[in-house]
Amino acid sequence: MHLLTAAPTTAAKPTVLTNVVLALFRVLVGVSFAFHGCSTLFGKPVAPHGALPAVGAWPSWWAGMIELVAGTAVALGLGTRIAALLCSGAMAYAFLTVHLKHGILPIKNGGEPAVLFCWSFFLIAIIGPGPYSLDALIGRYRRGSAD
After folding, report:
1. Cα–chain-centroid distance for residue 118?
2. C-alpha atoms less than 13 angstroms from C-alpha of 132 in its C-beta half-sphere
3. Is 146 in a helix, a strand, or coil?
4. pLDDT digit string (tens) for 27-72?
5. Which of 1, 2, 7, 95 could pair with 114 as two cysteines, CB 3.0-4.6 Å apart?
6. CB 39 within 8 A of CB 45
7. How far apart are CA 120 and CA 24, in angstroms?
8. Among residues 9, 16, 33, 12, which one has the least CA distance to residue 120?
């Protein structure tokens, strides 16, 4: 059985299923992050863990803005790589400044969501938005109008 082995020169070709799963993953992660930002900034759809931050308050308000704006951009696939890298960095910052002082293991320090968001967004930044995104649509439009 060759399920666990592959020749080093073979590269996986994206299939329709691969592209659909990537789009669903990108949308799910982006929307989840945007909802977290809505919660932080506006108390909707659920109240945040603490009080709503004052406009411009560091770091809560800025984190909420990154979550809302960049998370929405990732979900839409618009400026995806930059937005995903910003989201990944925000979650790395959250883990290092909030959670790490309570222990190194995410399961112990409550940092599992931060770690998962960080690496999910980093993966999206590296892989890109895929063909089912506004970035791809804009690219197709630009190539079509250049003719």
Report:
1. 7
2. 15
3. coil
4. 999 999 999 999 999 988 888 777 888 898 898 899 999 999 999 9
5. 95
6. yes
7. 13
8. 33
